[in-house]
Every structure is written in C-alpha cells, then in structure tokens.
Amino acid sequence: DMGFEVYLAVDEFSWSKQTLPTSLRRNIINMSIADELNIFLYPMDTPTNIANPVDLKLLRNSFPNSKLFMVAGSDVIINASCYQAARSENSIHTLPHIIFDRRNLNYRHEHDEFLNEALKKIEGEVIRLALPTQYEDISSTQIRNYIDENRDVTSLVDPLAQKYIYENSFYRREPQYKTLIEPISIEVEIIENITSDIIERVSLIFNKNFLNIYSKFKEFSSKNNARLILIKDALQGGKILGFSAFHWVRSNALYNDFKNSLVSEYIRENGVGRIILIDGVFIDRTCSLDNLEQLILTETLSFCLAKDYAYAVFQNIINSYNSKSLYELLELQGFIHLPYGKECNPIYVVNMNSPCTLYLDVKTMIKEPYRNSVNVQKAILKSRKRLQSALTKIYPGNLVLSFDRTMLHNTLIRKICEENGVSTLQTQPRNLGPAICVPFGNILRRHIVPNTITKALHTEKLFAPDMKSSKIGPFPYYMDLETQLKMIHSFNRPIILVDDLLHNGYRAKAIYPLLKREDIKVQKTIVGILSGKGKELMDIQNMEVESAYFIPKLRAWFNESSQYPFIGGDTLWRGIYPEKYLVPSINLILPYTSPTFLKNSSKSSIYNLSEVCIENSIAILTALEKEYQAVHERSLTLASLGDVFITPRYPDRGLDINYDFNLDTSHYLENDLEQLRRMEYIINRI
User: Could you check whether the bond before residue 64 is cis, i.e. omega within 30 degrees of 0?
Assistant: First the structure.
C-alpha cells in the first residue's frame, strides 16, 4: 500500500532448521499471495545470502533503476549474525530497511534498547512498521503446533495453504530444527601390544575361573599378530563393555590351532588369501547396550578387511563361554557352521574376499513417536533378521557385514569435527569451524554436526521408467543441483563432503564437475564405507578421502530401508513431480524390477530375497498401522503416509495406474506379494 513492489525469497540459508523442499514451500507462498497485487516470488535460481556482500551486490544490480529495501523483523535485526558483524562494502548494513516491530507475548523492555543499538549500524533509510495486534503472536512454532494437534489454522495461514498442508501431511510430527548429533560415549580401542595388565582387565568380564581364563589369554597373546578390540564406555571411566580376540593363522600351522585334521583340511581347500582366526567375542552380561555383540563383530571384521584378510574362522578359546545369540549372529553375517568341531564349541567360517554390506537404517525413515514404539521396534528387529538371512543366501558362504547406524554416525562425527578443528561436544556459545559439512547422500541429511555449519546437498538416484539407465539429480521437489551449489558457494567457506558409501562414485562423478564450475573448494571427502574402487576414483581426481570403514573389494551393498516398498527406494523419474507429496519409487526387487546388480547369484535366492522384503514391509507397516490407529483413532492410509514417514514413497506402477489414497499400504503389498508368488515356478525352475 506504500507503493513498494515486494519480492519474497524462500530462505535456504538457515541451515539449522528442518524445512520442506523448496518447491513445496514456494507452492504455499504462491497460494498465500495469489490475490495480492505487486507481491512476487523472487527467482530461486539466484540465491541470496544476506551475510555475503557479493550476493547483496548482485541483488542490487538486479534492480538497477530502483531503490532497494530489505524487509526484516526486529528480532532478526537483533539476533542475526550478519547484523552483528562489522560493516563492510555492500554488507547488509548499507541497505535501506523496512523493519517490523515484533511485540509478541515474549516481548521484553530490553528489546527496544537492543534494537536501537543494532539500528545504529545501518547506514541507509529505515522505515519502522508495526503489525496489527491480531498478527503479532503468529509464529511458525504456533502454526506447527496447531497442525500437530490437527486444529484449524485458517486464522494463521491462507485457507488454500491450509488445505494443501493438510492434504499432504506437511509439518506433521516434524521438529522445527534439525537434530544435533553428538558422539555416543562408546569408544573403540585396538590393542596390538597385549600386556599382562590388559589381560587382567579383560579377564574381569568373566565372573568365574579367573585364573584359567587369564592363562588362556596369556597363551593367546603370544600368537601371530594377536590383537584385541575393546569396546569401552567413556562415561564410566573407560569400563570395558566387551571385546574380541583374533590372530593371524598361517596355512602351514592350521593344525596347531584347531587340533583337528578335518578342520584344517577344510580350511586349506576352501580358504582364500590371508586367514584370520577370531578367538572369541565376549561381552559384559550386565551391560544394557543393544546389539553389543553385533557392534564388536562388525568392528572386528571391518578391521580385518582393511588389513587384507580374506578368510575368517571363528572358534572360542574359552570353552565355557557360550552365546547362542552370537552363533545366530555369525550365521546372519554369512558364516557357515562346520560339522567337525565340538558341539559345545562350534567352528564357523566365512569368505571375506568380496563381502556385501547392509546398512541398518529403516528406523531413520520413521517419524516420532512411531519410531520408538515397542511394537514397531519388535517388527523391525524381527524383519531385520529375516532380511539378513535372505542376503546370506545370495552368495552362500560369503560375508554380509551389517553396519549399525549409531556407530557409523559416531565415527563420522568424530572425523568431521577433527577435520574442521572443533569439539565433538556442542559449545556454548556456539563456536563454528571454518568449513561447511555438506552431506550429499542419505546420511546426516537431517542432522547437524556439533559446532559445524551442516548444509545438505539434496541428491537422488533417478531411474528411467525402463530401468535401463539412471542419473544423479536433485531429490524430488528440491532445487536443481546447480542452484543448490550456488547457495553453498554463497557461504564463502571450504566444504567437507560427506556420504554413506563411496564405491562406483555415481554421486561424486555428478557433483564434482559442478563444484569446480562454482569454484567451491573441497577440503576433504569423508564417507562411511569406502571400497578400493572408490578410493581409486578419488586418487584419479587427486581428491583427499577418508572413511569410517574401508572394504577393499566390495561386491554389493544394501540399505535396509531401500529394500522395503512404501518405506524406502530410489526415485523413478517420468519427467514431472506428482501433485501429491508422495515420491514415485522403485525397489530393486521382484516383481518391481529385475535386480540385475546381483551378478552370479541363483534365481531362487533372488526370489527368496524379494519375498522376504515384501513380507517384512507388510510386517513393519502393519505394526505402524496399529500404532497409528491407537494414537489417532483412524486408519493409516496412503493419504496420511506423511504422518509416519519422513519421505513418503510409493512403488511406481506405470502411467495412468493410480492408487486409492483411502486404502492402507499393507493392502497393496498383499497384492504385490500375490503377484510375485504367481511367478515363483518360472523363476525357481532349474
């Protein structure tokens, strides 16, 4: 009304906030300003960081014949770091301002004093306005709370925007800010020089036969390359929660270790490369940490893989220590039980030459409070074992190494903070490191690294409808990769790239040329799992890379969530985004597609894996449906899938084949399972 032409820019620089994808936010704004004259959306291909004078100069030049004003709330003027910084050429202080005084319920008298002090730094003209009383207390927090409670928000947002938000389940069970990840108290220590003091400490885990156990480990310490991996709790003064013992076995000395010629003969005939003998995995039975045996086993096997061991044998050196859960765990990692050992002390073997990996991430796809529901967690754990068992049948006798999300995050956080020169514990006041952490895969996408600007590059693998080709593009509803990188460039800092896995390097190959074009300095790339092939790709490009775990010869990798329809998957791209915020996806299992990446595996094992994945998805979704019914007293349907999943997906069935959004997902999966079983004969026929 004052004669201004107004442009609204969707802010993508508030890196600590958890926002909707850009296109969806712009849709909400368009609905809200559709009946207003002279109010426009600012182009999203020109991101403007108000803390960057270069961006502000470009903004000025975009309107050469106009007087440019910056609009801000008084709370922003007081709190934003760019206003507290020193004035410089083209800085935010050199622009005229229109400031809205925010006198809401949290208003304090010191507010005016702080504001007047901040205004002294602004050189240009300042116009101060006040909102009508009924609008002063409206905030994004209030709107989110109303949406969570399923209340009417037409007094807070445009009615069309409300309809759009509720139809797509936006902001439901969504925290306003990203989750800060600080390292857990668990520490991993590798002991290569096994002293009497170390032996005494680990022997204390056992409640009886201390002298006998001490002598066993004393004898073990003299073996070839004998090592211990300790899992300790830093909060309890480094208390040992569990450990593994292992040593190198020469092929000409197998009988000395096993005292059984059948065992040594089997290993000689089937073993490949260097052989490691795992002499036991032991835990403190009083420890309440979940998956402690899995954690120790994963750390042990990944350490041995990095040392080029290609064959593993397990036999406990403590005959009295029995753990049925450990034996089950070994079989779920692909170990084969040899019939030659004693029943009370079994022997297991596995080929580690070309392992597969499984990233246990299905819980990260589910929103609170459903994620931590007891029934949902039971369904996930039961399904996980069935999935692990199915994967061991793809390449029988070969290692399938499972990685726990918590430990992977823990190791990555420590490496990122060390690279950025900051503490792994959040400091108050916040002391940010010089580099930006840029996750460009699935890992850490919705999290913040302590004392580090964490800005995700939203990428996705996009498959063509015929599944014969794929490309790396922006995650659905986000800006194109070039624009996202322009935004990262505006921070004017070096970056630390982070991904969960680097093997074929599809994502890296797609974004590195764009990074060079935008002149963004990559300080280092840090990944969860790095293969020998991935390391070579980085060496060719002369790029520095570091990893939590190194696997020289990776055969195949699986994300737990990606195996399950409606829960995860990769995007199937038909050139347009659907109006409903459900991502059309493909799971690399039957009957959706042929999993061609599984080379030299039997048809029956692929069929079995596909059947197990659909059954697991049904089990998890059924548990979620029951939990949702109990909380909301209504059914969980496709229309409300966004209430439960962070990124709701559905398996793409083809053009003009639509879902009924009033039905539940388990109903559709029962149909898919029926369709798969119709093909069982032809698939399993020899």
Answer: no
